[in-house]
Structures are given as structure tokens and as C-alpha cells.
Amino acid sequence: MTHTWRVETPIDAVLIGGGIMSATLGTLLQELEPGWNIKVLERLDTLSQESSGPWNNAGTGHSALCELNYTPLDADGTIDISKAVVVNEQFQISRQLWSFLVESGRIPDPSAFINPIPHMSFVWGADNVVYLRKRYEALSSHPLFAGMHYSEDPQVIGQWAPHLVEGRDLSVPIAATFTDAGSDVDFGRLTELLTDSLVERGAALELGSEVRKVRKNADGLWEITGRRVGTGEQFSYTARFVFVGAGGFALRLLQGAKIPEIRGFGGFPVSGEFLRTTKPEIVSRHQAKVYGKAAVGAPPMSVPHLDTRFVDGKQALMFGPYAGWSPRFLKFGSFFDLFASIRLHNLWPMLKAGLTNIGLTIYLIQQLIARPKTKFMDLLDFYPEADPADWEKITAGQRVQVIRPDGVLQFGTEVITGADGTIAGLLGASPGASTAAPIMLQLLERCFADRWEAWQPALDQIIPSHGQHLADDPVKAQEVLVSTAAALRLASPAAPSQARSA
Q: What Pfam families does the annotation carry (predicted)?
């Protein structure tokens, strides 16, 4: 007979999932309500092994400095920078939270999780050069994009990133933008640092604890039940508030909680692969994150990029992503995840999403059947002298794109909250981890409306720009950029490297 471990005393907040979202929310709650009892439940035996793991994402501090999918070309020939500004502002909120944690001693050394690295956009072909020039003109005067440089000169671009130019047919025009203000983030290590700090301050962490069900009881509290992986021992906790930050599995748990707000939502899983090299002679000559344009029909998270990565104190280069497909909702999930998530209320939205995204389906099929030699050609577009012998294939994290009740396939994140604010969950992906802080602030405001006003003084200390739009205040924007750069030991946009200008 299997023993059930039951705790009747209500826990103030149970966070399901040991990734960056739970770690961020727990950190904010602990700052705002230091007396609260917080418990983190993770099904695996270590933290951040799914989407937050350093090799399961690109590690880009997504601030729209280089990501071209955030600046589309409108029909009238102008560049729409509105999404880029929003994404950049969101990342500045995350930077402010991390800076506060460094300055308050909760994170002793920022270089353990974040490192400065230039961000570049790179294109080839006459039409793409025109696009990038317009993009630069639209962004460079904005206070959040100070210090951005542009060049069409191969010599200048070669100084920024030699691999992009060496061996290239220079009869084809090229262009690039460059900014020192970029960063590489190890979200796995950040998750560990935040969770360690949570535990040191009294929170409880239980690894190897798989949550199977979340249900509201007659007292209006949430019953969280599951089993210990390995022993099979059952557990049961009661909580006043539950956050479901379980990556792709959040959809199933929220469906099981039977909250009306999840009705109609579905998920479409997408996996990915990267190429990686750790050869010092290659890595040392490419110190940048370089993003290009996505292929026709490719989803936004498939924008090709050649990235410098800092993981476990070592540098590597990573190129990709190459799209794949699996019915799993987690990298360490089940092949039945997709089918188990289908309900009568989300069947039509899922079918509609499939019918209206034929281009995506064709793209995925092309990626799945492409030979390794064909895939390697994509890297040669960025690095013409790349040698297949120097690169290895790695499998990235599993993503579950949100299918909304109206049948729209959403490439972003969706916060789902119960009507009474006692349960919330997060669906979706990119830009994901980079925007953990603003997403969790949004969640707190929706779930704790009765406490939100009282929390304002503390939030103003944690995030100085809280409640403001930096895009509307160039002085404040510069102040935030400079102060967080100093705290996190990043390059300051106030003093761009003029030697790198075109």
C-alpha cells in the first residue's frame, strides 16, 4: 500500500515547476511578503532542466537590439518598431530586478549568470540591406537603442565579427548593425541562484516531486497532489495560492484545475536543435550574438542566429535553431502529451490553428526531412568557412506554442489567472525567460489586487521604473540603462565604442 504524505496546514504559495518563472515569482513574493510560507515543487531531480536550461534556449537577453522579427516592414515601406520597444522595456524591468538582487546581496556575482556580449543583426542581398538600413534609422534615435552602429562595409563588419566576412562572395551586398549593450544570460544558473536564495530565506524546495492534480476544495483552498519520483510515495498539500510554471505541462494542470479561464486554450509543441562548437580558435574570433532574417514560413522562434554563449564559465558558439516536432509537451515528457491535452472545448481552436498555419506545417516538414548537409548550409550563410567536423548537434528545449480560443496560434506568452486570483499559470514561449520579471509583475497585479497598492513602495525600490514607460522619458531610460549596466557589469550605452562605428 502506497503511503500518502499529507500536510493539512495551508501553504501561502505553492510554485509548480523549478524554472526561471517560479524562481522569479518566488523571489518577488519573498521581497513583498517576507513572512509568507513558499514551497517550490519540481518533478525532476535538479532545477532548470527544461526550457530554462542553458542549452535549451539561446541565452539571449532579448531586448530587440538584434532580433529582426520584432521590427516588421509595413506595407507602406516603413519599419514598425512598437514591438521592439515593448520587448526592450520588458527586458529593462528584468535587468532592474537582477540589479536589485545583486546590490542587496541575494546574487553575489552577476557574472555567474549574465555576461556582456555585442548584439548584431546581419543580412545579405540588396532588398535586405535596404530593410536593415531603414531599421537602423528607425531605432538608432530611440533612447532605448542608444549606441547602435550600422555598416555596409565588409571591412567594418569583419572587425565586428570576422567569421561573417571571411570566405564570403562580396559581390552580394551585406549590412550589419552592432551594439555593445547586449548580453548573454544563463537562465539555468540564474534559476539556481534565485532558488538558492529563496531556500536560504525560508522557502522549501522539493525536487523529484511530480504534481498530478490541482483541485479546489470545499474551503476554497487548493489541494495539490502528486507523487515522489522514484519512490512512488504520494503527497498532498493545501495552498492559498498556486502558480503553475510547469512549462508545457502547465496546460494539462490548468485544465485539471477546471478553471473556466483555460477553456478553449490548446497547445502546439515545437522542438528544436542547435549546432555547437567549443573549439577555442573558432570561439575566440566570434564575440557576438548575430541574428539574421527568418526563412519564409518559419515561426519567429526559428530566426537563425550565431551566438556566443557563456555556460559554466566556458565560452561556446551555437547556431540555429533548426525546427523539429514531437508530441511531447516537455523535453522529459510523454509522447501522449499532445493527445492528452485535447478537450471538446479546444478541439475546434486547435483544428482552426492547423488550417490557418499551413505555411508553418510545410516549414516543419521541410525541416524534419532535410539532410544534415542541407541544414549545415544555413550555417554557411553566416560563417562561410565553417567546417562540419567542428560542430556537434544538440537538442534544445521543447516549446508549446499557445493556441487561443479563437484559433490563433500565438508566438508569445499568455498568463492565465483564475477569477478569484488564487491560481495562475503561464503558457507559451518566446521571449520567455528574458521577460520573466514583467510577466510575474503582471501576474501579481492580477492575482493580488487587494495587496497591489500596499506593495508599491517596495516595488519602486526593486524596480525604479515600475509603472513608467521608459520610451516616454529619455532621461529616465538613460539612467536605468547606465545604472543596471554598472550593477550587472555590462557595457554602458552612455559610452559606445566609437572605434566600432562605420
A: Mqo
Give which of 439, 459, 267, 245 is closest to 347, Cα–Cα: 267
Q: Is 29 contained in some domain? A: no
Nearest 5°: the CA angle 6, 229, 8 is: 10
The pTM of the full predicted model, rounded to 2 decimals, is 0.93
Distance CA 25, CA 241 (A): 12
The string of pLDDT tens digits covering residues 429-485 is 766 789 999 999 999 999 999 999 999 999 999 999 998 999 999 999 999 999 999
In the block, which residue shows the cell 536593415? 132
Q: What is the DSSP letter of 108?
A: S
Residues 88 and 119 sit within 8 Å (Cβ to Cβ): no
Please state the domain count of the chain: 1
- In terms of phi and psi (left: phi > 0; alpha: psi -120 to 50; beta: otherwise), the region of 388 is alpha
Q: Which three cell numbers stand for residue 31?
A: 521581497
Instruction: Place 413 in a pLDDT band, splitting at 50, 70 and 90.
Output: confident
| Enclosing domain of residue 325 | 266-413
How far is Cα 450 from Cα 447, in angstroms, rounded to an integer?
9
b/e burial code for range 106-135 (CB count within 10 A of at least 16 → b): bbeebebbbbbbbbbbbbbeeebbebbbeb
Distance CA(11)–CA(6), nearest Å, equals 12
* pLDDT for the residue numbered 1: 43
Residue 432 lies in a domain: no
Q: Buried (b) or exposed (e) across 49-73, using 16+ Cβ within 10 A?
A: bbbbbbbbbbbbbbbbbbbbbbbbe
Cα-atom radius of gyration of the chain, to the nearest Å? 23
Return the ∠ at Cα 430 (arms to 84 and 461), rounded to 5°. 70
- Residue 337 CA, distance from chain mean position: 22
Residue 498 lies in a domain: no
Q: Is 458 domain-assigned?
A: no
Please name every residue paired with 115 in a beta bridge, in sequence order, or none if there are none. 184
The model's confidence at residue 496, banded by pLDDT at 50, 70 and 90, is very low
Q: Mind listing the pLDDT tens digit for each residue in 194-203? A: 999 999 999 9
pLDDT tens per residue, range 175-210? 999 999 999 999 999 999 999 999 999 999 999 999
What is the predicted pLDDT for the residue at 495? 42
Place of cell 508553418: 360
SS3 for 363?
helix
Query: CB–CB of 401/268 below 8 Å?
Result: yes
